[in-house]
């Protein structure tokens, strides 16, 4: 088992997961189907939240109690959360520029933007994984165990699994093929990346889940499982080729919600801990006495293996087809690719 889902709150934990999963699927549909939806969720809403965040930090710097006690300031203050929120939002805006052909979005050279922004998002997480591995080693040398307390008062357990998963993340960047094969859908409701098939999606999901399990353990039930499965679900059933857009949209929306309402995950009946906290609690004021990092290691190995296998497939196919896998699409014979291209507006 990955998470501690039992006891009197088990029903709330399962309900919370379903609400997050369904909510992200629905909000993704609202944001992608119309320009008005995209503009509201990825331009107007982030602008309003930026004013809110700046106000909190200005108030905190002035010693205002309302700011110092604000849940966002107390529980969501690490560099990672803000970097992820704005990087994901930048991706959503760039993807809208491509699918609606706004400004530079209609220029052929801008088709490389999706690769660049996804790679940046992956590298942000890789750096965070490596940071946890380093801090875990420092804690081991200083205290005899690997527990270290994050700036958000969450005990993390850094170890070799962070390094293994960080390497998997770097390989995952190399698993993105056909950088220039980016299209707008015929209905102009999606940006499509047909060469990003199920191979990449599985490798990415395993890597990213392990990232959340390592570094956001108290949130991984939601930002790991629910958040990752929502775009994969949409891509599998009705939005073939649109996975990367689905992923960016749901990630940005989730980051906005989590940044403003951290209590949902951190201290409510919906809070869910992984098995790492073998004593069943995560209390910032008390250093954990025990740990169960077994699943961290298992998933890290699976994530690395998946990315090695996918990269090997890419190399093999590129050699057989005599193609550069980044300049050219190499999965053109796959069902995923054909279904995505059937939806694409091809102008070249």
TrEMBL record:
One Pfam family it belongs to: DUF5692
Keyword terms, alphabetized: Membrane, Transmembrane, Transmembrane helix
Name of this protein: DUF5692 family protein
Cited InterPro entries: DUF5692
Superkingdom of origin organism: Bacteria
tRNA processing recorded as keyword: no
Spans through the membrane: 6-27, 39-59, 79-97, 160-179, 219-239, 251-277, 297-315
Record bears the keyword Membrane: yes
